[in-house]
Amino acid sequence: MRFIGAGSIVFIVTLTLALSGSETRMSAQAGVQADNDRGVEKGQQIFRYDTFGDEQLWTDVLRMHEVIPAIDPATALAVGLKVDVDALPDSVVNALRAGTLDVTNPAVTVALLRLNAVVGVRGTVTDDGRLTRVGITCALCHSSVDNSLARGIGRRLDGWANTDLNVGAIVALSPALDESTKAEFRTWGPGKYDPRHHAFDGRNIISLNSPSLPVVIPPAYGLRGVGFETFTGDGPISYWNSYVGVGQMGGHGSFSDPRIGLFINQTPDLVTPKLAALLDYQLSLRAPKPAAGSYDHRAAARGRELFRNEARCSSCHGGPNFTDVLSGPRATVPVLHHPDETGMDPRYAFRSATRQYRSTPLRGLLQHAPYFHDGSAPDLLAVVEHYDRFFGLGLTAAEKSDLVEYLKSL
Fold first, then answer.
1. Which own/partner pairs from 238-242 qualify as long-range (CB within 8 Å, at least 24 positions apart)?
2. Domain that holds residue 318
3. pLDDT, tens digit (0-9, with 9 covering 90-100), for 242-299
4. Are residues 154 and 242 in the same domain?
5. In this structure, are residues 16 and 86 in contact, taking their beta carbons and an 8 Å threshold?
6. In-domain check, residue 348
7. Is residue 205 domain-shared with residue 312, that is, in the same domain?
8. Rounded to whole angstroms, what are the CA distances from 27 to 31, 46, 52, 145, 287?
9. 145: phi then psi, degrees, rounded to nearest 5
10. Which of 222, 252, 262, 356 could connect to 363 by a Cys-Cys bridge, CB 3.0–4.6 Å?
11. Is residue 146 over pLDDT 50?
12. pLDDT value at 410 more than 50
């Protein structure tokens, strides 16, 4: 867990509801039609701020509104929650820069929610400062910040996996859960979540699989042209958005998939009508380019040749997105791989609808370690060494290093 010191987020309790942050608007790409622009903008609002009515889980069942008022900002940041600096008034920003604000006052957490400054968390706060309802949005897990003001405080980075977020530790604070369930959630650790452990049907949390097998939270950028976003390629992007929005976030909507025996029906459906706009926004999120000086260009050039030839990486990680998932004869049917083909742990795949794994798109790799679905590779060298052993490539230490530099450059 990471605590920030004097620069931690705290602001003055006398803030009024009139204070509001400015939202970052994405620039329209050349040639994009006005209707698409509006769709992307609508999708951004959904991604950042729409709970789909999931307060029915986070408030009515988990009772997180009772827990949050006791959490101070430093603790919230320590479990990976992020703060949108553009939602903070100038007085708070200036005080943070000066390091003059207290970090131990839990009332500030509620005030942050009133300002809608906690990325991915929405709260209803009364005039006298009581938090009465709380829900989450897509941005909780799939956005971060650039730390431009302090650790955990900055401008939004939509689509970036929140690799600091300890969902299990947060949910384990719920007074509604039994101790054995809390203990299981606490094993997840930062940057991981198990979407096959349980589901919410609108009334109850139902068990899907046990014990828990958490996977790393993936980024939501660089999805254009990929078609299937999950580790196991269960369906196109909107399929997974529906599965998560209804069954995992707890949104008020309907989802069914006989392959995994999950059927949830709630009316009105607050999720399905928003999937198209949400998809438009997700497809607009480009994978970040590597920062200047983050890799050795000459070594990367050598690594590119290894990637395409001796190391045989491009046999699965081909094309502009470095994945073969759409390389089959039909775009609606993903090309997937049995765990035995790549030496992956099969247990998570066997809980999915496909029982296989997709070749992961490699754009923006440098930004979201650890790697593989289970996070078993802490860095890119560990990835290269896994495949060197499994396929018997016989790469030298220098060749492995060159491959790593190329992967950094993607």
1. 238/275, 238/276, 238/278, 238/279, 241/138, 241/271, 241/275, 241/278, 241/279, 241/282, 242/271, 242/272, 242/275
2. 297-324+359-409
3. 999 999 999 999 999 999 999 999 999 999 999 999 999 999 999 999 999 999 999 9
4. yes
5. no
6. no
7. no
8. 12, 18, 26, 18, 15
9. -135, 165
10. 222
11. yes
12. yes
User: Would residue 333 count as lying in a domain?
Assistant: no
Residue with token string 């939602």 = 87
Q: Are residues 273 and 320 in the same domain?
A: no
Q: 258 exposed, middle or buried (CB, 10 Å; 0-12, 13-18, 19+)?
A: exposed
262 and 197 fall within a common domain = yes
In the chain, the number of structural domains is: 2
Question: Which uninterrupted H or E stretch holds 263?
Answer: strand 262-264
Instruction: Give pLDDT tens digits for 68-120.
Output: 999 999 999 999 999 999 999 998 898 888 888 777 899 999 999 999 999 99
89 and 141 within one domain? yes
| Residue 289 in tokens | 């380019």
pTM of the shown model: 0.89
